[in-house]
Amino acid sequence: MTIDKAHDFINFIVFKEKNGYLTPPEIDMAINQGQMSVYNTLIGDWLDKNVIHNALNPFRVKKDFNTNGRLDKPADYGYITGLYRNLYDDETGLNDVRRIIIYKEDELSNALSSQVRKVTEDYPIACEMDEFIELYPKRNVSGYFTYLSKPIDVKFSFTMNGREVIYNPNLSVHPKWNDIHINKVLFKALEYLGVPLSAGELVQFANAATQFDNQTNIKL
Questions:
Q1: Is the pTM above the cut of 0.85?
Q2: Do the Cβ atoms of 96 and 88 come closer than 8 Å?
Q3: pLDDT at 175 (0 to 100)
Q4: How far apart are CA 185 and CA 56, in angstroms?
């Protein structure tokens, strides 16, 4: 869904419920709060159940690396989901991909001194810090890591022609959520705007908004 359709939907409900109107920056702020709330809830579910909800698929990122032991986190980094190294197998003549186990900082000392799973160049380990990921032993390593990026702040770009809002799609920043999941973000945004709705009301308004504009792409 584009940001203008998201704004149309929220203003549609706000007008129905409160007979009011919100400015684009007010709606942007609510959507950004809403999407972070939904994102953090889904991350919490993943950490508890070890299953990534498909609502997070637009935020999956794969990034190659070649490092001597330190991986700086990208600016959009949210949570790491996997770390792998490329290793050439002399016997088969093929490249092998091996998963690198990531330890917490308070587990690192025991992991480095383990005699059961010794840390070697072929079997390195890693530790996640606040701003980077450290690999041990500190040797030149190539591979890739996968992570969930953070939602980017949406922005409804516009100019004013008197009292008329002129939407600029080219300078706007649109939500990354799939259409089938954006409704959760918009409904959460409505909560922040002081328009709490029951499950029945959500269905009613979503259907009404779809009839109002069949391009809204609101799905439940």
A1: no
A2: yes
A3: 96
A4: 12
